[in-house]
Write a structure and sequence with these properties.
Elements lengths: L1 E2 L5 E8 L3 H12 L1 H18 L10 E7 L2 H13 L6 E5 L8 H11 L4 E6 L6 H7 L6 E5 L4 H12 L9
Length: about 170
């Protein structure tokens, strides 16, 4: 993960989906400045309603790279790793005809980068979650979301996946 000093941390996200309208939804949720403001409002409301601390980091930003096929996703992950600038999160649609599906792409990506968080987003999948976990271990670095979904919420979830959790030690 890259740090940019005063600008905050950049979360590198690769998105592979064969539907241009879905890619637009990702762009809007992950890149548009209003998204960060919306998440801050949601966090502030949650903090007020549920007596928890607001968690959205206003300095958190995403750098998106997009493609429409599984093979391209694998190539992009390999190139990023070779450059020493790996992705933090890879989001894969499960079905991306005519090439390899997202699960196969995820399996190949995991072999290239064991540390990357892999997120499967699908409206329909022939592959049960248990099979995904078997093919793309470990389960704690593999996530599954079903369409329809809130892309804004997904952006917040992705930020939480790569943000270290502060530990509270009781003395």
């Amino acid at each position: 993960m890259m740090n940019t000093g005063d600008e905050g941390k950049i979360i590198r996200v690769l998105i592979a989906d064969d539907d241009e309208l879905i890619l637009d939804c990702y762009r809007e949720a992950f890149v548009e400045p209003e998204t960060t403001q919306e998440l801050q409002v949601i966090d502030a409301l949650a903090a007020e309603l549920f007596d928890v601390e607001a968690t959205t980091n206003e300095d958190s930003k995403f750098q998106l790279v997009e493609c429409s096929q599984g093979e391209d996703a694998v190539s992009l992950v390999k190139a990023a790793a070779d450059k020493g600038d790996p992705f933090d999160v890879v989001i894969l649609d499960v079905r991306m005809p005519p090439g390899i599906d997202g699960v196969e792409a995820g399996s190949q990506i995991r072999a290239l980068d064991p540390d990357v968080e892999i997120v499967f987003v699908t409206g329909y999948s022939d592959v049960p979650i248990e099979e995904m976990q078997r093919r793309v271990p470990p389960a704690m670095k593999m996530h599954h979301f079903s369409k329809p979904l809130s892309f804004t919420q997904l952006a917040q979830d992705v930020a939480m996946m790569v943000t270290p959790i502060e530990r509270c030690d009781d003395d």
